[in-house]
Design goal:
alpha/beta; D-Maltodextrin-Binding Protein, domain 2; five-stranded mixed beta sheet; three-stranded parallel beta sheet; 13 strands; disordered N terminus
Length: about 250
């Protein structure tokens, strides 16, 4: 009986060891694949594509790990990191002080502003940010665009909370714009340019918010330093220039 117990314990130890080995060979990345040109699903191949997805593949290759990409709602990404469901998140995520209290970030890899888009046949024009206060605006929940409208207009009592229509993703926000249910959508300028190529929408105003995108990690992750070195290498390479040209 004692011999059987020893063998059983050894088997458990070995199983745990191999499970850890298998886990350490995998790089699990969270994203919200509804944000072209950074992350989106190819309609034909169903593969994840975009600048962020290519960055994820580059990092996985450099780390000699197998890559697994998981697509979830944007506002679930940080809670998932906090619960260690992902090794990192690549989702055109702006580095903010509020987010840095919950997760760690890599060095910045892209700078963006906030754009206002409307239907391509719309006569709506905006010449100043204050004019946004009279509009019904669509936005993706959990984004810096939502925070900007909330802090600048709603909390300042310049517009009603009901004028800001929140969606789980940008795809739904843009579709409701096309359906005529909102006047415009606030979205990062890079994604706005991507939607201009895909949908009958146009950019009518840009807010110079100068936001920096970073890769997010669970607090205290040992991957941050390694990924920063890989990012520095990529950002200074010809391959990066080719990626920017490809997507923008």
């Amino acid at each position: 009986m004692k011999k059987f117990t020893i063998i059983f314990v050894l088997l458990l130890v070995l199983a745990s060891f191999f499970a850890c080995q298998k886990s350490s060979d995998l790089l699990k990345v969270g994203t919200n694949a509804e944000y072209p040109p950074f992350e989106y699903t190819d309609p034909d191949s169903k593969e994840f594509k975009g600048l962020d997805m290519d960055i994820a593949r580059y990092i996985a290759t450099k780390l000699n790990k197998k890559l697994e990409i998981v697509d979830i709602d944007f506002d679930s990404l940080i809670p998932s990191l906090q619960n260690n469901k992902f090794d990192m998140v690549l989702a055109a995520m702006t580095i903010t002080d509020e987010r840095k209290e919950k997760v760690d970030f890599s060095i910045p890899y892209y700078t963006a502003n906030q754009s206002i888009i409307t239907k391509s046949d719309s006569t709506l024009t905006i010449t100043s940010e204050e004019e946004l206060a009279k509009l019904k605006i669509g936005v993706q929940r959990g984004t810096t665009g939502e925070a900007y409208i909330d802090e600048t207009f709603i909390q300042a009592k310049k517009m009603k909370d009901t004028q800001l229509v929140r969606f789980d993703n940008n795809v739904n926000a843009v579709q409701e714009l096309l359906n005529g249910n909102v006047d415009c959508v606030i979205i990062d300028d890079s994604a706005a340019k991507g939607y201009e190529k895909l949908k009958p929408v146009k950019i009518i105003y840009t807010i110079q918010s100068n936001e920096s995108y970073g890769i997010a990690f669970p607090k205290g992750s040992k991957l941050v330093e390694k990924v920063n070195k890989i990012l520095e290498e990529l950002l200074g390479s010809q391959q990066w220039l080719e990626l920017i040209k490809l997507y923008f």
